[in-house]
Amino acid sequence: MHIIIIGAGDVGRELARRLSAKQQEIVVVDRDPQKVKQLSQELDLPVITGNGANLEVLHKANISKARMLIAVTESDEINIIACMLAKTMGMKYTVARIRNPESAGDIDIDTRGLIQAQVGIDVIISPEKAVAQEIAKAIHWPEASEVEYYADGRVMLMAVYLAALAESEQQPLQDFALPAGCSVVGLMKTDGKFILPEADTMLSGGDKVYLAGRVAAVGKAGRMLHGSKTSIKRVIILGGGLIGYTLASILEGEKEHSYTVKIIEKDEKRVDELNRKLGKSIVLQGDGSDISYFNEEEIAEADVLVAATGDDRTNMVASVMGLKRGVAKVISEVTRIGYGPIYEAIGITDTINPHLITASRILKFSRGEDVLVLDLLKDEVAESMELVLPAGAEVLGKNITQAGFPKGLRVAAIVRDDEVIIPDDDITLTAGDHLIIFAVPKVCSRLGSYFVCE
């Protein structure tokens, strides 16, 4: 597929890297000559200097041949105009990153239909809102390091770190009495090696275990493997930007949980604005990286500390302070893709990267209409996705064994007629099945040969 990416920032660069690795034909457009030079040196693909909202530039990018345009510049207006122009020229799919919801009206993210009729954008992605949703999931499941939902919330993928084993240093997977309705689909060993485990695979304390299945079963299994259950009541959010505000709104609207939410924001006008917008949360003015302010606010009494100030240095300092004061769960926003290892090196393991989340949500639409959800794992060692098995697919009518799936692919769950099935090798695949797929990157580009119509 010929895809035009407008914007060579972190998101555009990540998309170009991943899509070109999947054998897609990519052209990148950016008006910053330095970014163009840097990207052209990093990746072997065409990069054009120019404004992506300009017709002449779009023609240079061979827009008549393209089937998708992805606009991810720092300017909402350029992203919207580029998509509108592309639609007038017959573009099949358009995707725009919109940071300020007011730029495109009161439109929810990842929405189709009406948006296309209104402004020519098939999919709108708000990175900040997406990050807030991810953090909310992490607060809801505090034992987990990653959580993803599929099949309208009926299937969950969860990653947890295995607690130290009491009886021995290692134990085979088959010896863990996991609840019915879930299975282990992936394993990141403490030495960094990632595998799709078998029944006799040995597990050690500190391994990162990926579970998939029914929500209740996965939650129970996660708590069992993690070795503890964390009760979350008090949440402190550092930063009252769009991430902090959206997160507080989500937590205020939780029906199953009652959270006490406190936001610390350094801008006085923003504090007043948030106090008007939010009904239950407490909003205070202060500098989240100031040590004396931390003591004053008794951060140690918080169950969760969220650092979402928009600045990596401030987020790091605040997160380290929270960890030293014994906060049970510290979650930090990572504003630059390359900073992830730095956070991990100083002990901050629960991180959320807006660029990777945005790239993940956009990548889904490059897969085709049968892929409903696609997620990149935090360690980038595998992808998980939900797809609908179409009539005429190569594997239709075959069982798991007969399908001949490659070694790096696992069908984690099947949703059929509202029933969640943890498949064995003998289950037959039928048209309309919602398949939850767990696969390593080297086999992801070959999925079409199994799940796409002949």
Automatic annotation (TrEMBL):
List the residue ranges forming a coiled coil, or say none.
none
Q: Keywords assigned by UniProt?
A: Ion transport, NAD, Potassium, Potassium transport, Transport
Tell me where in this chain the RCK N-terminal domain is found.
1-125, 232-353
Q: What GO cellular-component annotations does this UniProt entry give?
A: plasma membrane
Q: Name one GO molecular function term.
A: potassium ion transmembrane transporter activity
State the InterPro entries in the record: K_uptake_TrkA, NAD(P)-bd_dom_sf, RCK_C, RCK_C_sf, RCK_N, Trk_Ktr_HKT_K-transport
Against Gene3D superfamilies, the record matches this protein to:
NAD(P)-binding Rossmann-like Domain, Regulator of K+ conductance, C-terminal domain
Give all residue intervals belonging to the RCK C-terminal domain: 145-227, 371-453
Q: Which SUPFAM superfamilies match?
A: NAD(P)-binding Rossmann-fold domains, TrkA C-terminal domain-like
Pfam families cross-referenced by the UniProt entry? TrkA_C (PF02080), TrkA_N (PF02254)
Q: Does the keyword Magnesium apply?
A: no
Q: What is this protein called?
A: Trk system potassium uptake protein TrkA
